[in-house]
Amino acid sequence: MVDVLSQSEIDALLAALSSGEMDAEELKKEETQRKIRSYEFKRAVRFSKDHIRSLTRIHENFARFLTTYFSAQLRTFVQISVVQVEQLPYDEFIRSIPKMTILNIFEAEPLEGRMVLEVHPNVAFAMVDRLLGGQGTAPSKIHSLTEIETTIMERIFGRTLESLQEAWKTVIDISPRMEALETNPQFMQIVSPNETIALISLSTKIGDTTGMINLCIPHVVIEPIMSRLSVHHWFVSQKKTRAPEEVEVLKSRVSKAKLSIVAELGQSSINIQEFLGLSVGDVIALNKPITAGLDIKVGDKLKYIGSAGSIRERLAVQIDQVLSESEGVEESYDE
Fold first, then answer.
1. DSSP string of 125-150?
2. How far apart are CA 238 and CA 7, in angstroms?
């Protein structure tokens, strides 16, 4: 925020300049001198602002998918939104979360390494309470997980990884797989303490219960795809390519489309008077000799040359020549 000088301060500044106590040129030099900025090596900057914006966009979609998923599973009001995306050392993240919390450790092939989805106990126990028929309230005192609670949490949080997979589709196709569920952060060492991580904080509200869901993504895990998190990549990737499955479906539908095939003996033109005077037995002269092949058209395009015949007492046409695109033009024959 810029400080605004009072009138008395402005008068004092002008007086100092006029008396020579302050030199305007010296002030200009101080402004132009290179400013030194401190750098904390323990908090190495690995993610640029561009990367942070891209991660924010991806996980805003993730938050929407989670809202839909949990609303359907819990059948109650659920609201999840991205609060903050920041980078910090892994050790600082571990020290910032409760001593007893829900830590879902997972991998996401083809990325190498492990990531963590940390769910605040208030949120996790409210989900379990709701799934077991309760009102969805968190207990007043957090206790260690029972086998039933552990199984329920593994299932419900394991399926949240499908939402994460869907959110990351615009960048890379990943296959997240739950590896373990822990409750003590001290037993979870997925990277070195000084490793930089991207921490995506999601504000979560289930009924009257609120809490945080934190997604921890180590820099070393997504370093191979960092270039895809740039704005340039996002604009270039707007040209969507069809998946092989979509291409096959499209081919299948096109192959079932019906086309008309017409074999022409030839053409002729007569006037209205001649047309009205036609009767049985009259002969109409065509523009092609009898030895010329038949023009076979698919739709309105000439594609083949054939000859007339019969098969099993039914009229038929045999294809004698396949025309290329340049040859597919109608030729006229004059007697």
1. HHHHHHHTTS-----SS--PPPHHHH
2. 55
CA atoms within 13 A on the CB side of 159: 13
Separation CA 59–CA 64 (nearest Å): 8
Alpha-carbon gap, residue 270 to 34, rounded angstroms:
94
Q: Which residues pair with 107 in a beta bridge?
A: 114, 177
Angle between helices 49-74 and 121-131 (to 10 degrees): 30
CA atoms within 13 A on the CB side of 106: 26
Helices in 208-259 by DSSP H: which ranges? 219-222, 231-236, 244-255
Q: Are strands 301-311 and 294-298 parallel, antiparallel or unpaired?
A: antiparallel
Q: Which long-range contacts (CB under 8 A, 24 or more apart) does 285-291 make?
A: 285/335, 287/332, 287/333, 287/334, 287/335, 288/332, 288/333, 289/333, 289/335
Would you say 83 and 65 are in contact if contact means Cβ atoms under 8 Å apart? Answer: no
| Interatomic CA distance for residues 298 and 259, integer angstroms | 7
* pLDDT tens digits, one per residue of 238-249: 555 566 777 887
Give, as one character, the DSSP assignment of residue 42.
G
Count H helices, E strands: the chain?
10, 10
Q: Which DSSP string do the residues of 252-314 spell out, in sequence order?
A: HHHHT----EEEE-------HHHHHT--TT-----SS-TTSPEEEEETTEEEEEEEEEEETTE
Mark residue 33 as left, alpha or beta (left: phi above 0; alpha: psi -120 to 50; beta: remaining). beta
Convert the pLDDT of each residue in 148-163 to its tens digit: 988 999 999 999 999 9
- The CA-atom distances, in angstroms, between 141 and each of 152, 211, 228, 245, 283 are 19, 15, 44, 51, 103
Tell me: the pLDDT tens digits for 60-117?
999 999 999 999 888 888 899 999 999 989 888 998 888 889 999 999 999 999 999 9
DSSP assignment of 167-198 equals HGGGT---EEEEEEEES-GGG--SS-TT-EEE
